## 1
Amino acid sequence: MNVQIVCDSACDVPETLQRRYGVLVIPLDIRVGQHFVTTAELTLDRFWALVAETGERPQTAAPPPGRIIEAVRPVVSGGHRVLALTLTGRLSAVHRSFVLAAESFKGRMVVFDTQNLSLGAGVQVLAAARWAAEGHDLETIHRRLYDLRARVRLQAVLDTLDWAERGGRIAYLMPLIRRTARVFRVKVLLQVVEGEVRLLGVQRSWSGGMEMLYRHTLAWSPLEDVWVVHTRRPDEAAIMAQRLTEALGWPSGRVPVVEAGPILAAHVGPGAIATVAVLATEPRRGGG
């Protein structure tokens, strides 16, 4: 009996790796102006073009349980068990939609909250998919995910707070940011901790924010894996990846660079850069 790994599109698993490991991705809904589509129908270039054309901030929504059931039913009917990973349930209704959908499959579908965003969730999806490909059963993969989840750190620098503030997902942080910074237009370093976004620090300049991101990422050493994620900032993301690669003594290309999909982009806007660090199995604690 094989295990099928499923995730939501906000996990930002690169398409090449989706295909390599046979990950089934459930698209979320997105609205830009009067355009209502799923992420499966929207390329990144088209997403940003719509944002420019309409001048409106995108809105996102969880997939309805029916969409998940429709996608998963053939898998379960084929004799497979399903392990579905979702972005954090503390900031989104996506996890709840998957839980509701799983009720239709009487124990043959298990839902796991990654307590993370974007590639912070995606690295967990990829690990689960590799373990499934190696022939591990669902219970083993599920158990391993709890250990991995505790070792994943996502931190990000935002070029602007406008998108995050209007999206409302980090409204609880805005008073703290205002108290911390006399001038509101600062570069903010955020971190995902146990499914919630927390403030790590502020910088007045972009270069200062990037340096803080670099230092905080390395502070988690020793590291098992690192990714760099960005929204429309490929050159600077590549520089960050190269700096981290050299500092860690890893071979060139060891730190992948990925552009975030429309869901994260809709909430952080253009110009954000994040790192996803996976701590080694017995890490030295750090990172602030």
## 2
Amino acid sequence: MGMKIGMPFRAKVCCNEKTGSIHACYLLINDGNNGNDTMTMPIKPIKPKRISDQVFDQIRELIYRGELKPGEKLMPERELAEAMKVSRTTIRDAVQRLVAMGLIVQKQGQGTFVKIYDSDDQSPLAKAMQAQDASIEDLLEVRMGLECNAAALAAMRAGEKDINAMEHSIEEMKKEISSGRLGTEADTSFHMAIAYATKNPLHILIMRNFYDYLFYGIRENLAGLYENIDNIDVIISQHGDIVDYIKGRDSYQAYTAMKKHITFVMDFFKEKKNQ
């Protein structure tokens, strides 16, 4: 049964009789015909978000989007507190959570840094790859499923900030290439911007671990792909197409454009293997 606009309702609140605290609430919706309650909708009290949670979310977002890159040093605790207009205790709480997640590391006497992928401290993905004797082709097949769906979801959910992050990553990739670098960091930022635009925290976390391994754990395997300037031109063009479809809210075409992009990378490694 759907709720009609203007349909009368009343709230029923269930409380703990001893403490008076709310433990469940319901909206009792009346159909307006005979005065009988015809449907209940469970709701929960809104809890204000802790300031430390907001600090945590903001720093995590900067890392996930690639604006804070692996190895980059965070501002000192005092400066962070001043910049975010919160207490140093709040900053400390958020930082400890980020350390526990493995996103940042604290070095005695040096400061706090975004964690760099360490082959000696293997991720679950790296361990699984070794245990299953999986190839880079196997890895790219998984990437196909994850990223095509991410592009489709991003077309439905991306906000202006997400779009700006994607476009910024493309420009950063061009700069990295022109300065003689491989462009892998900007490429990672681009795909993480799409993952972040899904608004799915689990998807974001999976992709973060995935790219830590793909671009840092087996970086040498990817060197050939990025060293060929013709490949770079194709990749940048494909990135642009993906963003255009996400901006246009076309989930199908965004999915298709990402599939074309990943297929291009897969074909490169297949040809390399057969040489």
## 3
Amino acid sequence: MTFKESLKNSDFVVTGQVNLAEAPDAEALIRQGEILQPAVDAIQVADESSTRMQMAGLAAAAILMPLGIDPVLHMICRDRNRIAMVKDLIGASAIGVSSILVKRGKKFDKDNNSGVQNVFDLSAIEFMNYIRSMKESGDYPFAADLLTGASAKVFAPAAEWEPKSLLLKCESGARFVQNSLCFDMPVVRKYMKSVVESKLTHKLNFIMAASPLPSAKVAHWIRDNVEGAQIPDAIIDRMEQASDPESEGVEICAELIRELASIPGVSGVNLSTLGRIETIPAAIEASGVRLPKDS
């Protein structure tokens, strides 16, 4: 079953994200895929947000697909002009990718030492509209069945909040929204309550993010450096006090998954980690939300 099919047929979808920074070659990537595959509905292939060099997402998707893995390919507008974006889109369709996540990408600082330039020929909204127009024209068969997703930040909205940005993404062709990493469950509940009241869940599937933290040091780094990430002090305190931080991180993540599965309007969760990839299926198993595929 593909990610697209899982969103239609499952109450709670689970995806895992490969860490391309730790996959210098096909063998290392395949190993990550084989670890994740039994526990998830699909594997997300994310682009690098920094200037660090790593394998291209499209190449990673091509390596994973022969294993029977359904990749959700992230496409970042920061690094490519529209010609390159469409070429990648056609290539992704040609190898069988059926779901993409379109993101703007974090802007490089002018003072970065690498000399790398921001492209931003198209915004994420513009690229999604471009894909939508290709679908509606009927002249581009490769785009017809493509599931397009957008990203969003979780926050605690005010009572008068109107989800204008989410509505725009929906009108531009997004059919799922992948949200920023948030360990603060009261914030997630308030956000999703407003989303449900807006009736956007009738049009969009909302995927939350979670992560088995490997250490308190990594938790601090994520909170300080990952855009939109929210990790309460109480979570970091648990990690600092734990005799086995990795196991504590898995347990915290399992608790979050269980709670996310109970929140109205949440369609699923995507798990990523800066620690060992094995902690992702461990957290899924500990959460009890599903059985591995081969069980």
